[in-house]
Amino acid sequence: MSAPLYQLKAEFFKTLGHPVRIRVLELLSQRDHTVSEMLPEVGVEAAHLSQQLAVLRRANLVVGRREGSTVSYALASPELADLLKVARLILSGVLAGQAELLADLQAAQPDRTPPP
């Protein structure tokens, strides 16, 4: 018996639940990258980046293509770039709503200064 779809979705989102993995996917949404190209953009040790790339490869979210002694990584599916764009839109809406709420709270108590 196969796992229910909701369980597979949960595993998928759990795989995305690491900032380095999200940053890698963002970079690969722009173009293919090698590890050496990603390192300065991601800001972690090479070993840590390799571990996170391994997680993404095992989940079939990225693919590696050997070019001589280097490996170039790419998104396994272009829809991942779309997912990241949708996540950005959702977060923008949430943050805009929070900014409006903060403005409303500050307007309700004009004599108080906000904490630092």
UniProtKB/TrEMBL annotation:
Keywords: DNA-binding, Transcription, Transcription regulation. InterPro entries: ArsR-like_HTH, HTH_ArsR_DNA-bd_dom, Metal_resp_trans_reg, WH-like_DNA-bd_sf, WH_DNA-bd_sf. Coiled coil: none annotated. The keyword Transcription applies. It comes from the Bacteria. Pfam families: HTH_5. Residues 1-95 form the HTH arsR-type domain. This is ArsR/SmtB family transcription factor. It comes from Streptomyces mauvecolor. The lineage of its organism: Bacteria, Bacillati, Actinomycetota, Actinomycetes, Kitasatosporales.
